[in-house]
Amino acid sequence: MKALVMDSFGGPEKLHWAEVPTPVPAANEVLVQIAYAGLNPVDWKIADGHLQKMLPHHFPLILGWDAAGTITQVGKDVKTWKAGDKVFAYCRKPAVQWGTYAEYITLEAGNVAKAPSNLTFAQAAGVPLVALTAWQALHEVALLKPGENILVHAGAGGVGGYAVQFAKNQGAKVFSTAGTKNQGFLKELGVDYPIDYTTKPFPQSVREVTKDGMDVVFDCVGGETLTQSYGLVKRGGRLVSIVDTPDKNLCEKLGIYGVFHFVRPDGAELTQISQALENEKVKALPVDERKLADAAEAHRESRKRHLRGKIVFKI
Hints:
Elements: E1 2-6, E2 16-19, E3 29-38, H1 41-48, E4 61-62, E5 66-74, E6 86-90, E7 104-108, E8 112-114, H2 121-125, H3 128-141, E9 149-152, H4 158-169, E10 173-178, H5 183-188, E11 193-196, H6 202-209, E12 214-219, H7 224-227, E13 233-241, H8 248-254, E14 257-260, H9 267-278, E15 287-291, H10 295-302, E16 310-314
Parallel strand pairs: 9-10, 9-12, 10-11, 12-13, 13-14, 15-16
Antiparallel strand pairs: 1-2, 1-4, 3-5, 3-7, 3-16, 5-6, 6-8
């Protein structure tokens, strides 16, 4: 099969085309012909070598952890899927090597879900990693409750865009940060208090609305944004970051719970998300369709961190 591969860590210039063996599904796996692959910031972080301490890496390496496509073959022990089923999945494996910038991928049967019938493959490919990240962070880690205040950083981005919708569906009061051009988009997603971080410091904007602080802060940015967020979490509240690990000592001093969360594949949870999309309880984020041949330029754009929704590649 044809794939976009890397033979060593580095920037977008390291990506090149190669012919690699088409994978064969193990007994508990399915083979998916990929129609579209999603781009996530983790792709270029892997390319740079930032995840080496977290997961083993092997070369040649195919980037990409999001996919939507059609099952073409199932392993002998798989009973839940059949050839022809249209699916999508968060495609992380125990080792980083065989990703979705390719024509085919094998996945554990339990990690795939039926693609939402009301979405195109392009739209579906933009969902799994970001939606699962938001779902797990809010429902499993932060344990967000109805009526609570939550601040979602970067609400116009992939993870943030689903987080604000899940939070609204949970009955929370949602605050969210974004630049000037995305304030209207935040309102479309249901954000109660859109915050333009370019016009004034976001902590000031939050305190103008509520002096009590946030029950939950969900950080999708890290760095200085995380640093400025500690003081916005009320005592007993939760600070969840998907970028940096919160300072344990500072959290203890403030009486808050701080944790870093790294998303895991989960077909059952992705099925719930798929159903929410089909039932229109959640809107799919906008996608920007590109050719896989344009992945290098898309990676350069993603590094600037000001994208709305998701870039997806047609395979």
